[in-house]
Amino acid sequence: MSGELGTTNLLLGIMAAVSVLEGLVIIGMGVAGFMVYKKATAFVEQWMELAHTVEARHLTPAMMRVNAILDDVKNVTAKVKDETERVDDAIHSTIDRIDETAGRVRSNVRAKTDAVFSLLRAARITVEGMFRSHVRT
């Protein structure tokens, strides 16, 4: 049985050594993971600093120019809208005046032509009356 205990002790010793090696590998992986984490955060910080620099140098002035252009477009659009309303009002008032003038011209022409037609009708009735009286006698 002592031979079996020696084998068992040897196997237990090997298992203990492997466990120590596994522990050291896990600690090494932890240290390596921490180092990768530090490098990754440093890389991200550099990237963010670069992004802020690019934003400060290029994007901010570009956005200011774009905003200025948009403000100009807004002002021009407002002016065009106001002028369009003004021209539209002028056209409507002109059309209203033309309609009013056409109505007055129509009534004046109708009044004058009614007088002429009345005179012609009276002349026709007179002429017809004269011819009828001749025919009867």
What does the model show?
The structure is a single chain. The chain has 137 residues and is an all-alpha fold. The protein is built from one helix and no strands.
Lay out the secondary structure.
Elements: H1 2-136
List keywords for this structure.
1 helix, single chain, mainly alpha, 137 residues
Q: What general form does the structure show?
A: rod-shaped
- Bin the helical content: over 70%
Q: Which runs of at least 5 residues are low in confidence (pLDDT < 50)?
A: none
Number of helices: 1
What's the N-to-C terminus distance? 178 Å
User: What is the number of beta strands?
Assistant: 0
Class from helix and strand fractions: mainly alpha
Give the biggest beta sheet.
none
Radius of gyration: 55 Å
DSSP strand content: under 5%
Mean pLDDT: 88
Order of helices and strands: H
Compact description:
With 137 residues, this protein is mainly alpha-helical. The protein is 99% helix and 0% strand.
